[in-house]
Design brief:
The protein is 47% helix and 0% strand. It is mostly helical. The chain is rod-shaped. 0% of the residues are buried.
């Protein structure tokens, strides 16, 4: 899982259930790294559109007749 040997299993005081829970949660940082890499390398079209700066628009002002 990308962890050094004994990272969880050599931790004193952890039950087998706690070790399995810790190992199950341990994959999250690797998944997050892969997801961010994929998004930053080639973002999906919807995200690319959302990240593009909107063109500047001008809003006409109503002229006052005083």
């Amino acid at each position: 899982m990308g962890l050094p040997a004994g990272w969880v299993t050599a931790t004193p005081g952890l039950t087998r259930n706690a070790q399995l829970t810790a190992l199950g949660n341990g994959v999250i940082p690797q998944q997050a790294t892969a997801a961010l890499h994929a998004l930053l390398t080639e973002p999906p079209p919807a995200l690319s559109t959302a990240l593009d700066p909107a063109p500047a628009t001008t809003i006409p002002c109503a002229e006052s007749s005083s």
